[in-house]
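Q: For a teaching handout, I want to show students what a protein-ligand complex looks like in token form. Below are the inputs, and the small molecule is adenosine-5'-diphosphate. Please produce the holo structure.
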Amino acid sequence: MKYKVLDKNSVVNYLFEIQEVMEFFGDDDFEASEIGDGNLNFVYIVKSTTNPKKALIAKQAVPYLRCVGEEFPLSRERMTYEIRALTKFKKIVPEFVPKLYHTSEDMSLVVMQYLGEHQILRYDLIDKKTFPNFSEHISTYLANTLFYTSSLYLQSDDKRELIKKFNDNTELCKLTEDFVFTFAFMENETNDNENVKDNPLAAKIFNDMEFKKRVLDLKYKFMTQTDALIHGDLHTGSIMLNNDETYVIDPEFAFVGPFGFDIGALLANLVNNYVHHHIVTGDQEYKEWLLKTTYEVLEMFDEKFFELWDSQKDSALITDGYIDDSTLEQYKSQFLKSILQDSVGFAGCKMARRVFGVAGVEDIRGIKNKELRAKAEELVINIAKEFVMKYDSINSVEDIIEIIKR
Ligand code: ADP
Ligand code: SR1
Ligand code: MG
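A: Here is the structure, written as tokens, with adenosine-5'-diphosphate included.
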């Protein structure tokens, strides 16, 4: 079918032609409304008119960046990568990825399970909700998606096939290069310039050449490392969950990139939320829960990744019999330490970009009281700076928790 931009009426007409959707709704009529609150795309909830709990989600990419407007063109091919990534991750960790009912690269559209009993993690964290299974779930998601798409599991030809399939996601990788690693740390028209103007904190970070050199190193890792298929935008707005289940949505930034990038994104968002509570609510108990969760996610990731690696004797990287067991164990420990270190570096960049860059987040930019917001921003920049300046000397998860607490 030839691409056209849908609206709440034409999406229903389109779905009438899709067998899987018609089977889902059976004899029920259905209607659509737009619920997207993301930066890039349009998201429709398509509900049965007789039973509104029976619903599906239809998400379509339009040929521009939604949060800026039609004057910022962005090719809709990003949905091709979202479809490919959802399909791939669904095979690896089916319990953490919504069920797919229909995908069309031509229409840049996906129809998926409606997560009606799940909430976006970012808003729940702001509301001080706790989730007993979150660290267990998300560490399993991270360990499995990263391990099974890496050269520690795949053979060389399969890994290169994976790179071919994902690494033309040029425009979204460039968005990250620009908005995560560059524009947020210099004068730029896309920044939150009301806040940048006459702000000593902005001047401090924009003129900190030692910090900016380290950011360049991390940007270079992002641009050149092809470790594993990553989600590419794993902030707390890309996670929907409840007490029992956790889902990861929105992998349109997916490409074969550095191991530490998704872990770093999650770490950054947990720490920015910690800063929110430190400054706004002062809720000690909740801050403790956030620190415990951060600790568990990182430790459990390490254990699970190690375990997966131990069960794989032969891969593109390691040929069985190549080195003795104790050397291999040392090698693996060092390898995992370097993933942790890079995660901390990426987390620093991802925390700091939310202060002055485009696409601020509710945890920080959403703080209504100006003085408190300025305090939160300063704290975010201080922790982020420490992450970026010290990432390659981090030895353990305890070191990271120490930096946050201090
Ligand atoms: P974007 O690509 O524009 O960032 P998202 O994929 O993040 O879009 O979706 C935007 C919003 O739509 C989410 O924040 C969430 O509220 C809602 N949403 C997306 N997918 C689902 C889903 N499967 N079930 C329920 N709500 C969803
Ligand atoms: C201008 S792109 C804005 C941001 O939205 C996405 O969620 C990514 O984080 C991207 O950097
Ligand atoms: Mg999103």
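A: Two things your students might notice: Residues 149 and 228 are 5 Å apart (CA to CA). Residues 119-405 form a domain with the Aminoglycoside 3'-phosphotransferase; Chain: A, domain 2 fold (CATH 3.90.1200.10).
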